[in-house]
Amino acid sequence: MRPHASVNRRRGSGVELQIAPMIDVVFLLLMYFMIATDFSPAEEVFRLDLPEQRVGEADPLQLLDEPLRVRVVAAGADGQQARVTVEGPWDVAGSADGLRVFLSQSLVPQGSLFMPDHPIVIVPSPRVGWGHVVAIFNAAVAAGCTNVTLETPS
Fold this sequence. Notes:
By secondary structure, the chain is of the alpha/beta class. It has a domain at 68-150: Nucleotidyltransferase, domain 5, CATH 3.30.420. It has helices at residues 5-8, 19-36, 96-106, 130-142, and strands at residues 68-75, 81-86, 120-124, 148-150. It has a 4-stranded mixed sheet with strand order 2-1-3-4, with helices on one face. The model has no long low-confidence stretch (mean pLDDT 77).
C-alpha cells in the first residue's frame, strides 16, 4: 500500500527570498555614497567689521519697518513739471530717474536699506499731473520694488 498522498506532497509552495544579493547591493550603494559625498564643510569664515552699538541707538543691521513715502509735488507756474521728494533723511534727485537710481542702490542685493517688498507709498499733490505720478510709479517698479501703492491726493 502506498502512504497517503498528502504526506509526499511538498508542504506549501512559498517563495524563497534570496537575501545575499540584496546585501551585496546595499553595500555597493553604501560604498558609492561614501565615495561620492564630500565630507568637508562648505562654509567659509568671513571677517565682518560692524560698528559698535552705542547706548540708545538702534541696531545698525535692522531694516526699516515704516513705509517709504514719496511725495510728488507740482513745480512751475503751469504745473507741467513735477518735483520728487522722499520723506526722511534721504538724498534723492528730484526726478523719476533720480528716484529709480536711489531705490535701485538702496535695495538689499546692492545696498542695505530696503527689501524689494518694502512698502513704498506715492503721495501726489492735487495739482500734479497723473502722467508724472505714473512715471514715478514706473521708476519704483523698474528699480525692483514690488510693493508700490498710491495714496489719494490730499
